[in-house]
Amino acid sequence: MGACSDPLSRAAAYGELARSSSGKDDTRKFEKLQDSLASRADNEQVLADQYVDAVNAGETERLRGAALAAERRERAHHETRNRREFEKAVSSHRDHSPRRARSGHG
Questions:
Q1: Within a 10 A sphere around the Cβ of 11, how many other Cβ atoms?
Q2: Which of 19, 22, 56, 73 has the fewest Cβ atoms surrounding its Cβ within 10 A?
Q3: Number of DSSP helices (H) and strands (E) in the chain, helices first
């Protein structure tokens, strides 16, 4: 038994002992141990899966945050460039538009 370290292997070993056991009490004892260790193995797998999901969710959120930050920087850069181009166009239009002569009426 000492060679089997993980609960699933130990559960399988107890299952073999239950099948080869001659007395009902020993069979029940080994079956109970088998069930307990199989349940423990299932619980450990659930915890391991949840850990992986949590780590991946954290990484996904970090990547999503980085992508959003990059998108905001890109948008701000484009807005600044568009504003400068607009101001330049307005300034150029003012410089090249004919000036109206003021009339002396009034």
A1: 20
A2: 22
A3: 2, 0
